[in-house]
Amino acid sequence: MNLKHYLMAGAILSAGAVASGSANTAPCPNINGITTCNVVITAGPGGSFVTTVPNPNPYDGSDDNLVGIVNNSGSTIAQLSFIGSGNGGGLFAFDLDGLQSYVPGAGGAPDGTGYGGKVSNTAGFDLTGPNDSFTNIHTTAVFHDSGTVVFANGIPNGGSAYFSLESPPSINITPTPTPEPASLALLGAGLAGLGLARRRRQTG
């Protein structure tokens, strides 16, 4: 099966103290004998992301992929946004065979798609962690090919999460961190200073 995928991911990292943490492994539930995530995205310091493919075989035997997130960035990850296309639809063209249809309790409200999973403070499959869900799903042409995965309470540094998508995401990820409020304030002050200097020059 030939699949062509394009993906751009934007990570919104919450402001806060940077904590040290050891390397973590992505949790994914056992589906049809598959005990590893299909795709693992590891967030590192400085907004870096590394993507690996431990298992290229879709868990539903067709196209659906289990995606694990490992957070070694030093900050909490609140959400990740993806854009892409895949086999028979986009990454978010959900067709009722998400991971929750294979593993009851692997996710839940507020996710109503059946594709959401869990956020964990530690490595390993955690049925007790808070759920993650999807938002901002948009259609381009005939594909549901953009959306955001929201992690309840955020993925803490050293923590992890998992969810499912309709296709494997691309190995190329370009993060776009949201500026922290302090950075925005400094930017505003700088722009105001430039405006004042320009006014003085015009009236001088």
SSE inventory with pairings:
Blueprint: E1 10-13, E2 39-44, E3 48-52, E4 65-71, E5 77-83, E6 85-86, E7 89-90, E8 119-120, E9 132-140, E10 143-155, E11 160-165, H1 181-203
Parallel strand pairs: 2-4
Antiparallel strand pairs: 1-5, 2-3, 4-11, 5-10, 6-7, 8-11, 9-10
Please state the average pLDDT score.
74
Element pattern in H and E: EEEEEEEEEEEH
Q: Strand pairing plus helix content: what structural class? A: mainly beta
The radius of gyration is 19 Å
Spans of at least 5 consecutive residues with low confidence: 1-23, 171-200
Entry keywords:
204 residues, 11 strands, globular
Overall description:
- It is a single chain.
- With 204 residues, this protein is mainly beta.
- It has one domain (10-178).
- It is 11% helix and 31% strand.
- It has one helix at 181-203, and strands at residues 10-13, 39-44, 48-52, 65-71, 77-83, 85-86, 89-90, 119-120, 132-140, 143-155, 160-165.
- Strands 3-2-4-11-8 form a 5-stranded mixed sheet, with no helix packed on it. It has a 4-stranded antiparallel sheet with strand order 1-5-10-9, with no helix packed on it.
- The radius of gyration is 19 Å and the shape is globular.
- It starts with 9 loop residues before the first strand and ends with a helix.
- 40% of the residues are buried.
- The model is unreliable at 1-23 and 171-200 (pLDDT under 50).
